[in-house]
Specification:
globular; alpha/beta; about 45% helix; five-stranded mixed sheet; single chain
Length: about 290
């Protein structure tokens, strides 16, 4: 990697985007499996970074690393949850300087640059925070896919799978789902409680479910319940009268009209939907935004 270039890493539960941004506006992007520091083991994360290193080379220079599950350490620099990652980034990519930030900070910078607003992530998982143009100054805890993640693809999959296992959905939908995915009780339990990425597994059902939105009453109600839960349990705790809400995440971006329609009933103004925050992050770190 040439002098003056920056490596921006944005980790989601489903995929990690690695972007080398040059001073002249040139970019190189590669994609690997997702990284979540709160749910994944060191070997899995190390293998993902090793894959990226094989494509990018060792001379990484400066890295801006954004990831879910980042908890800042008491030293103010390397988060306690990222010590293994820090070692791997330096060892495999030859990184010199690394700045760590949460995926929520990534979303806020991509959405608002140096302006203020309410930033939300609605992809495989969900998160939110008030961004004052410099940093996240208030959050409503996501609590993860077991206790929270309302509004996300993983939460929709969790609600659907729970109904499927308990026989609480229309028989036709249940039968079609079982035939499409060849799922049974033991398979679901193994993936949710013992799998490498439970949220990714649950979120993988969201596209199939959304294909039936507006066509099946049960599915439509479930989808809207998930979105309303996010609004009522999360967004309404912010000052929605004074600030717009920007959203980053493939799930929400793909279903923008539904979010906007339901949000309007609560007085929420959605300003931006980003499928991928990387473009905004490149602008932010290269001074374009």
């Amino acid at each position: 990697m040439e002098e003056g270039k920056k490596l921006i890493v944005e980790c989601g539960a489903t995929k990690t985007t690695w972007c080398v941004a040059g001073p002249g506006g040139e970019e190189l992007r590669i994609y690997t499996d997702g990284i979540n520091l709160s749910t994944m083991g060191g070997e899995t994360i190390d293998a993902t970074i090793s894959e990226a290193a094989g494509l990018l080379g060792r001379n990484a220079g400066d890295i801006y690393f954004y990831a879910a599950g980042l908890i800042m350490g008491d030293d103010g620099r390397i988060p306690s949850s990222a010590r293994g990652v820090d070692d791997a980034l330096r060892r495999l990519l030859g990184a010199r300087n690394i700045e760590y930030s949460s995926d929520l900070t990534a979303a806020a910078r991509a959405l608002f640059g140096h302006g203020a607003g309410i930033a939300a992530i609605l992809g495989t998982g969900s998160n939110s925070g008030f961004y004052d143009g410099k940093g996240i100054v208030r959050t409503v805890r996501s609590a993860g896919f077991i206790l929270g993640d309302e509004g996300s693809g993983a939460c929709l999959g969790k609600l659907f799978i729970a109904d499927f296992l308990k026989g609480l959905m229309p028989e036709e939908i249940s039968r079609e789902f079982a035939l499409t995915f060849s799922v049974d009780y033991s398979t679901v339990v193994a993936n949710v409680y013992h799998g490498a990425s439970p949220s990714r597994y649950l979120g993988s059902f969201a596209p199939w479910i959304m294909e039936r939105y507006g066509k099946d009453g049960y599915v439509t109600r479930l989808v809207e319940r998930n979105i309303k839960d996010f609004i009522e349990r999360v967004l309404l705790q912010y000052d929605i009268a004074s600030y717009e809400v920007g959203v980053s995440g493939g799930y929400a971006a793909a279903n923008r009209e539904i979010f906007e329609r339901i949000g309007a009933g609560y007085g929420i103004r959605f300003s931006t939907f980003l499928d991928d925050p990387m473009g905004g992050l490149v602008d932010y770190h290269t001074g374009r935004k």
